[in-house]
């Protein structure tokens, strides 16, 4: 995946941008977590100690020069020693993210490492996960313990009774690894709440990675009339909103909207979702793609959905925290919880992993006006609809329903709306 282009961004600006994302995503606290970048001179730019992560400015970032000189208005993070130790152990690592995200802290206090085979993209993004035994925070010994794990080749490490630390080739790479690993942790925990998580085999993950999009021929000429440009803006806003709402992460998610007849616009396969811009979105017209762009690897599926379902004008394929609990546990999502859920969704079947690959018919045979969404095991949820905002609303309703069911699992047995009540809803709202 093409990472955020930070070549012309100062390290201070990169750090403040990413720490803001980490904080607003609920992955660290006001005082917790720290981020650093080592530049081409060997100087380390790092978040300050004891400064509010929710309002950090570029001017707050501290620079520790290669000779040890400290420049800035504040002290460097108390965890600076292990940042420095990681850079010394691994010259290929140029950025480090450390925080205390809830799911990974849960793993750290039960002394476990999350299995990234829970979702398809995580194994390649996160790699194998290291484990650092507990040492006093901010100590040189902790730095040594963590550096030894990175020396083994790990790019992500669970810190015993503490949190996690990840490294990357740049800050965009490190953040994506951090976010994806935490999502894995949450998916395993929520899946364990309602059932028993099932994991993908290495062969299944390899099969997913080999699903390189069938490269559509390129158009010779591209037109961008006003209605097409309006769709680009709409897609961008919904993707950004999904990321802000925790309904999509950097490494996975596709949105498409029908344009004219069976032509449509779709998100690309090579851009971090939260950074998608109008010019990144790919036009698909007469079975051809916009020149110089690679659309989502699920383009074939979207194309077939539009061909076979005239009532569908938008599709969202994504990973959300609580719906993924049903995806990885193969438990049935019973949306007969509250009237709105059933009216919006009716039935949400589970389909096997791989049902979304090019040439597969399972999903295409299931989708209809009465079945607007499916859960793909160990992969994602696919939601269809008329207007894109309505499709997004349907996704939100599905995720809220899954959250209520997951939370309710600790309280007692689910008591759904009974068949007579369902029939009343059908007559009033769907007839």
TrEMBL record:
It comes from the Bacteria. PANTHER family: 3-OXO-TETRONATE 4-PHOSPHATE DECARBOXYLASE-RELATED, FUCULOSE PHOSPHATE ALDOLASE. GO terms for molecular function: aldehyde-lyase activity; metal ion binding. GO terms for cellular component: cytosol. GO terms for biological process: pentose catabolic process. SMART domains: Aldolase_II (SM01007). Residues 13-189, 233-406 form the Class II aldolase/adducin N-terminal domain. It holds the Pfam family Aldolase_II. It comes from Maribellus comscasis. The lineage of its organism: Bacteria, Pseudomonadati, Bacteroidota, Bacteroidia, Marinilabiliales. SUPFAM superfamilies: AraD/HMP-PK domain-like. The keyword Iron-sulfur does not apply. This is Class II aldolase/adducin family protein. Keywords: Lyase, Metal-binding.
